[in-house]
Structure formats: C-alpha cells, structure tokens
Automatic annotation (TrEMBL):
Keyword Lyase attributed: yes
Catalysis: reaction(s): L-glutamate + H(+) = 4-aminobutanoate + CO2
Official protein name in the record: Glutamate decarboxylase
Domain of life: Bacteria
Cofactor(s) this protein cannot do without: pyridoxal 5'-phosphate
Organism this protein belongs to: Rhodococcus rhodnii LMG 5362
PANTHER family listed in its UniProt record: GLUTAMATE DECARBOXYLASE (PTHR43321:SF3)
Pfam families named among the record's database cross-references: Pyridoxal_deC (PF00282)
C-alpha cells in the first residue's frame, strides 16, 4: 500500500478500512485505504455503509451541551434541505429566487433589530458568524481608512477594541487584516465589557468597538447601551466618533423575542452593524450566518461587487464565492414556520430549561454559579472555594462524558486564567426531562468524586471549549 505523509498527531494508525462481509459484493475489495484515494471503484451501497458506520462513532448531538450549533430540524426542513442541496448561493443568475429569499431574510432581521429605515439597510448571508464578523470588521476598517484619508491623516496602525472574552474569530480578523487587537480584560468586578475604563483603549486609530450579545465563555450579554454611553463621553471629550459592531452570534436571535426592552441593536445610534448565526439560535442546520448594516453608508461602496441578477445587477459582499444556498432557504422556512410568536416560544423554553438547570446546580454545595442563564440560555459555574483539593471541574467533565454528556471545563480568558469554569449551552431539543437526568448524573458524579481518598491524576486533563 502506498505510503501516506503529513498525518496529524493522534490520527488513526490503521492504514485501511475493512468492509463488513455482510455488505461486500463479489469482486469488490474487502479493504479500502484510509488515507489514499482507492485504485478502483466501489458500489454505492458499499461506500455508503462504510461512511455510515464510521460516522456512528460521533457523539450524540442531543447530549452535547458544549456547542451552540443547532443539530435538529423537522421532517419538512429535511426534505427542503435535500431538494435544495444543489443550489449555489453565489449564482444569482441561475438561482434568482434563492437570491430574492436571501434578501427577504436579512430585511426581516433588519426590522427585528429595529433599523431606523429598514428599506435603506443592506445585509448578506454568510457561511457562519465568523465570516459575518469578518465582513463587519472589514467595513469598520474601510470606513475608518476613508475618513482618515479625507482628513489627510495616516491609515497605518488601525486598532479594534473588544473584551478579552471575544470569540476567536475576532482574533483571526485582527491577524488576517493587520488590525491591532486591544483587549479589555474581564475581572471579577467587571465580568463583561461594560464601558468601564473603555476610554483608555480608544484613540484616533480605533476602527470600532465589538460588543458581544452572549459571551461564548459564559453566555452573558455585554451591556451595549452602557458601552455606547462610554463612547458618547469619549466623543464629547475628544471628538472621536467610534462605531460599535454587535456580535450577536447567539443573542441577536434571543433578545428580540425574550428581552425586547433591552436596548442593544439599531435603536442605539452608535451601532453600525450586527451579525448573528442562523445555525445557532436561528434554528437552522450548519452553516449559516447573517450580517446587517444600519444603512448603506455603513458599508463602503468599494467593498461591494455588482453581479448579474434577473437581467440587472445585485450587490454582493462576501469572503466566500460558491457556497450552499440550501441553508438560506431553511432560514426562510423557519421564519415562515415559527413567526415571531413561535421563535419567542422556542427561545423562552430554552431559557426556562437553562434557568432550571442553573438553579439545580446552584443547590449542589460543590458549585458557585458565575451567571444564571438569564441572558441567552447558557450559564457557567466554578468549584466553590475550599470545597475540595481532590478533584477539579475537568475531572467532572470526564466523568460526565462516560455517561454521554459533553459538558466542557476550561479556564477563563486573560486576567482570570486562574478561574476554571464549566458551561452548559441549552439548545432546542434539551427537554426538561433530559435536564432532570443531567442533574441526577451530575449529583451522582459529584458524590463519587467527593468520596475519593486522594487526588485525581492530572496528566491527561485538557480544556474542552467549543463555540
């Protein structure tokens, strides 16, 4: 068999995949190479069975409380997905109705997020929130560059201000597009970016501030209105007009339905753009994101390309070119299927389950809640100081994994790295009954760990963190 190269550390060492004799056909190979393209063809039934059986080793998505990404849709959505799998979102000439539906979706989001003039907004679908964040950041940088050139000033050394608890996509944005990241550390006293001390991070080279509606580490909202007020004060003192991009990967599809009185969106004049994940609390299969700008002035014209569409042209702004159109249709299906009342019911149910779980875990003497799952349906906790020296949350995470639950443990970001937390993400499909079973399993494993006569080994501990 041909030799393979460049295999990642920890990858499988077996060089071939054996075909189950039940599925093998006369004349077919009984083994297929694992890392090299096979020399010959296989029957579709054989190839299907091999892939199907390999995928069986993946975890049970319903018990994965680490990920924010949706893993279930109803039967009608599955049928729509299959029939739309061939649609290429970028080919608006071939699929003009899909393009029109994409525009309807971001227009709905613009209204949901209280755009002052929804007809004057502009938006786009993306592969996920990471691409949407990249586009939002690019628009901030380009607007800053244009303003600096008009003023006859240098466009070198742009910076972006954000919490130390941002999702890694913002670190990527700064790295890929040569923007200095300025991280405002979170602390015990200031558990989110809340405007405190913000003036010390902002200067004439600041392209914008990122505010997070649903911090990945804990699920907490950053108070966008307080951040905006702090920037208003900066402008009064210095003349610097710094815009905000709201990373609403999760919260932008929770707050409008469950906390409508919280001002975080385009009701705040300083908010220039908002992104969200269709495949998180938008309730669509991976991967789909959305980004909407306050108005067309917030998205510089030189970032937008015109493509043929229905005999005319249509603006497009994306990092990816060919990409699936099926998820866009699924989002439209969910908007029609649930409407405002349906989304409110689904999201409220998830919040109720999260707050039930938080209350039950708070009753366990070993833990201290970091937050209570009252923003997005996500919360975190830590070991109560002085409870034990024999085990950590990493050990509890591993014990729960043996019962099928994925409940990650990880250190908090810079300036709080000595704090380890465990986090639960409640998604549609985690029922109250399942939550009750999880609480019982946590209580059982805590009793087991508390009964240890000595410390658990630490050699194989590692953070488990998923966005």
């Amino acid at each position: 068999m041909r030799k393979t190269h460049g295999r990642r550390r920890g990858a499988e060492t077996a060089e071939s995949v054996a075909v189950n004799p039940v599925f093998a056909r006369p004349g077919e190979a009984t083994e297929l190479p694992r890392f090299v393209l096979p020399d010959d063809e296989s029957l579709p039934e054989t190839a299907y069975q091999i892939v199907h059986d390999e995928a069986m080793l993946d975890g049970n998505a319903r018990l994965n409380l680490a990920t924010f990404v949706g893993t279930w849709m109803d039967e009608e959505a599955d049928k729509l997905y299959l029939r739309a799998a061939d649609k290429n979102m970028i080919d608006k000439d071939e699929y003009p109705q899909t393009a029109a539906i994409e525009a309807r979706c971001w227009a709905m989001l613009a209204r949901l997020w209280n755009a002052p003039d929804p007809d004057a907004t502009i938006g786009t679908s993306t592969i996920g929130s990471s691409e949407a964040c990249m586009l939002g950041g690019l628009a901030l940088k380009r607007r800053w560059q244009h303003a600096r050139r008009v003023a006859g000033k240098s466009t070198e050394k742009p910076n972006l201000v954000m919490s130390s608890a941002v999702q890694v996509c913002w670190e990527k944005f700064c790295n890929y597009w040569d923007v200095e990241p300025r991280y405002v550390p979170i602390t015990e006293e200031h558990r989110t970016l809340d405007g405190h001390g913000l003036a010390g991070y902002v200067d004439e080279n600041t392209i914008g501030v990122v505010a997070i509606m649903g911090v990945t580490y804990t699920g907490m909202y950053e108070p966008v209105a307080e951040i905006a007020r702090a920037l208003d004060d900066v402008e009064r003192r210095t003349g610097l007009d710094v815009p905000i991009h709201v990373d609403g990967a999760s919260g932008a599809m929770i707050a409008p339905f469950c906390q409508p009185d919280v001002a975080w969106d385009f009701r705040l004049d300083r908010v220039a753009s908002i992104n969200t994940s269709g495949h998180k609390y938008g309730l669509v299969y991976p991967g789909l994101g959305w980004v909407v700008w306050r108005d067309r002035d917030a998205l510089p014209d030189d970032l937008v390309f015109e493509v043929s569409y229905l005999g005319g042209t249509m603006p497009t702004f994306a990092l990816n070119f060919s990409r699936p159109g099926a998820q866009v249709l699924l989002q439209y299906y969910m908007f029609l299927r649930l409407g405002f009342a349906g989304y409110r019911r689904v999201q409220r149910t998830s919040l109720d389950v999260a707050q039930y779980l938080a209350g039950e875990i708070d009753r366990i003497g070993a833990f201290e809640l970091w937050n209570h799952g009252t923003d997005i349906p996500v919360f975190a906790w830590r070991l109560r100081p002085g409870h034990t020296e024999n085990w950590s949350l990493y050990d509890l995470s591993e014990r729960l994994r043996t019962r099928g639950w994925l409940v990650p443990a990880y250190p908090m970001p810079d300036d709080l790295t000595d704090v380890t937390v465990q986090r639960i993400v409640v998604r549609n499909g985690l029922s109250r009954d399942l939550a009750t079973s999880l609480v019982a399993d946590i209580e059982t494993e805590v009793r087991w760990l508390d009964a240890l006569p000595a410390s658990m080994p630490t050699e194989h501990r590692h953070p488990g963190f998923h966005h």
